[in-house]
Amino acid sequence: xxxxxxxxxxxxxxxxxxxxxxxxxxxxxxxxxxxxxxxxxxxxxxxxxxxxxxxxxxxxxxxxxxxxxxxxxxxxxxxxxxxxxxxxxxxxxxxxxxxxxxxxxxxxxxxxxxxxxxxxxxxxxxxxxxxxxxxxxx
Length: 138
Fold this sequence. Notes:
alpha/beta, 15% strand
């Protein structure tokens, strides 16, 4: 059986990090689109870059929406730590985020992998909503 092709929209704290690790072990992950959610965007992007660096994945990381489209987001630092990764104080990743915005990457990858791509939405749906606004046929 062929592996699933996944695009994961995420806001890593520790919960999403585990799901990302499992996905890389069992599927082809063609990208990680990142939103603010559990903590601010700088931390969710940094956490994702560090995670893919640690596992040696070449998965592209796309930074997305820093704020919700409508309502103010609740901060989950009391659960995940101020950095979303339990305030471990890890050294920043040597990996860099892609230049393409997450919503644009969602659209592009959905066309490149038409009929095969599974979008796994684990973050607030701001990146997905913006992608749908850009292309309602998504």
